[in-house]
Amino acid sequence: MSGQLAISCSLAADSARLDAGAALPDVSVSERSCIARPLDWVGMRDIRMPVWLDDALSPAAQLASISALVNLPDASVKGIHMSRLYGLLFEASQSPLSPQGVVSLLGKAVLSHAECGSNAAKLSWRTEMLRPTQALVTQGLEGWSSYKLLIDATVHQDRVEIWAEVEIIYSSTCPCSASLARQLIAAKFQQHHGQENAVSVERVVDWITKNGTSATPHSQRSLARIRVLVDAAGGWQLTRLIEAAEAALATPSQGPVKRADEQEFALRNGENLMFVEDAARRLLSQLQPMYPSGSVEVTHLESLHPHDAFAQASWTVPA
Predict the structure, then answer these.
(1) In the chain, how many H helices and how many E strands?
(2) Residue 298 and residue 265 in contact, taking contact as beta carbons nearer than 8 Å
(3) What pLDDT does 197 receive?
(4) C-alpha angle with apex 136: 131 to 138, nearest 5 degrees?
(5) Smallest Cα–Cα separation from 53: which of 135, 126, 134, 133?
(6) Alpha-carbon dihedral of residues 88, 94, 100, 105, nearest 10 degrees?
(7) What pTM was estimated for this model as a whole?
(8) What is the DSSP letter of 119?
(9) How many Cα atoms occupy the beta-carbon half-sphere of 217 within 13 Å?
(10) 97 CB neighbour count, 10 Å cutoff
(11) Could you give the percent of the chain with pLDDT greater than 90?
(12) Are the C-beta atoms of 71 and 40 separated by less than 8 Å?
């Protein structure tokens, strides 16, 4: 009986299968929306897929979190065809993607949903780049620095915008804390030597060696998130953006260090005391002449406080 039952089940399953050429139902086309409302964006987010940017910092495909969206202005359309967007992204992942390639991809995304009335698309790639770095002082000591990267692109009624956003990690030393530390050190020196008419250089050096860190300013790991409008004809130029931002801040986080490199880093921190306001203005001064539109967000992960300090600014150069 059990064998006959298995055969019967198999025959039933076979009879339930459609012929290979039979059309499958598509309710997104055959049915209309019961609530007639247009939608700003519809699609997929956090698609895990490789991205290979046409840039020196992307020598091969690497993992990205991708979003692909189109608008749905026709209130009667029930749904879009998400598999079409996925297919476009898969095709784009097979070769280096330039800004011009993104422009083309946006156009294809809109065209793929022309019957839905779509005239806008939004694509984004979140990934992380590695950049080779050299120690500040020690020759031949090499390592890597990582940078979170977002490519954010939109087209609406043939108007295209492509944005690149990078995150820079750097060190910030508080100017107020530094001035308070200097005051304490000066007071301590006065206490020790205030009654003397003259103090030799050797004794001053000895005193500084023993007491120069009796009070120290606080410093902390800090983050700068920089977003700039990309010239589609000019390429990504990610190294140019990162180097300009790090030059403005002067204290980017380091990879491998020996004592000489750590000492140089301490010197750079001392020469570049920064509030969040200072860091934001440094970045603005450096980047605004280079890009027609952009923004900077600066966060200092305070060691003095359990909360963060934050500054933000944006710019647009008149056309």
Answers:
(1) 9, 8
(2) no
(3) 86
(4) 110
(5) 126
(6) 0
(7) 0.87
(8) -
(9) 22
(10) 22
(11) 83
(12) yes
